[in-house]
Structure formats: C-alpha cells, structure tokens
Design a protein that fits this description.
alpha+beta; 265 residues; 11% strand; 6 helices; single chain
Length: 265
Amino acid sequence: MSEQTVTPEATTEAPEATEPQISEDELNGLAKMVLESQRAMVADYNTRLARISNDDPAKYLHEIRNTSEDDKVAEYRKYEEKVLAALEKRTQEIEAYIKANLMGNAPTEDEVKAEREALGALKKEITEGEKYFGIATKALGKDTSGLLPKMTGARLSKSGGGTGQGGVKPRVTGVYINGELQSHVVKKDNVVQKNEDGTDKVSSTFTDAVRYLSEQTKTKVATTDLQAAYFAAAQVEPADWASGPDKVEFVFNAGEKNWTVLVTK
C-alpha cells in the first residue's frame, strides 16, 4: 500500500480591518464646528508652548537690544560700545597704578605659579615623611601621630591667583553671553533626558559660558575668574551667593574684548 503525500493548501491572511478615513465633507455641522475650534486651540497651544520652551523674556530682551534697528536702540549700542571701551581703558590704567604703587611686596602671578609647584613637591615629601615616621615608631605600639606637625593654611590649588571662592559652585538657571544662553543637553547614563513636553532637557552653567568664551577668544578662560566677576557684580561673598539678586548683569573682559554677561538664578 503506497503512502499518499498531502500538500497543504496555501492560505493567505486577511488584512487587518481598518476603519475608513472620513473626509471633512462627510462631517455634520456640529462636528465641523468642533473640529475648527480644536484646530485653533491646538495651533495656539503649540505656538505658546514653543515660545516658553525655547526662549525666555531675558533672552528676547537681549536679542532686541543687540540686533534691533530702532533708532533709540541703535543709538544705545553705540553709547554702550564707547562706555565699555572707556571702562576697559580706565580699568587697565587703574590696575597698572595699583600694581606699581599699592601692591608692595605682593608676589607676581609667575611667582605664585612657581611657588605653588614648589609647595606641591614639598607636600609630597612631607606626606612620605609621615609614612616613614609611622614605620619607625610602629614597634612602640602607641599612637604617635599627635607628635607630627600639621600643614595649615589655605588649600593648595593648581589654579593661578585665588578668588577666595573656596570651591563654591553657585547653581544658576541661566548664563547668557551677549544675550545668548550658554547651555548643554542633560544626559544620564549617556541618554538624553527629556522634559514633560518631549523636548530635550538643557542646563546652563558657568562652565558652559567659559567654554563658549574660550572658543570665541581662542584663549583659556578660567571658570573661577567668571564666577569672581559674578560675585563682585552681585556684591555678595561666594558662600552667600544664594542671598544675592535673582539677575546680575556685568561686563567681563576676555580675549581683549568686553562681553555682556547676564546670570539668572
């Protein structure tokens, strides 16, 4: 008896049923009225959301001040340019006077840099000496660390002249350079974080502003220098930055050019 081979019949899956797309012409009067109302409201919502998501009043004000062709605004820019140039010239003159007449035996920047390097090497020797002292007195079975002299004074920093900030990092919401917000996209585990409306979350810091200034001037701008200028303009001590004004605007010189900086808390 021979076996019969049965070939299964080919089958095709029916396409998933979808509701036909209705056209506006098929809508009744009430539906058309609701649709038009929805379109108007959504358009208004999208426009207003984009405005507050991408910009803020401070940025608009600075953009207008820096670009408007209005006669009064243009006249102000010419006035500002002259004032800033005069201020920079006067600042250089007074700093030269202070260095020549009032600083006495204060070390120069080069001397401070050289001394910091020398102190760094000496600190390493002191640390090694403490280790050897511990080895030498281990057999006594007593704590002898109290006999060692302690290094005191300000924390040794690799940076140049200190600003007295003591490591203070003011948390701000925006740092603007000539009206342009300096910021970066926020990432966590290398994943871009999002706002509730789906836009990328951004953060603005002094580091962002310094990076921009360094790129524009082709010089190395120190974050501590920009922060020191901010504290001076806000008229607050670094440790008390939170009690300062919500908005602080000042002129910062970098790369032989003056930049208008606005910081918002």
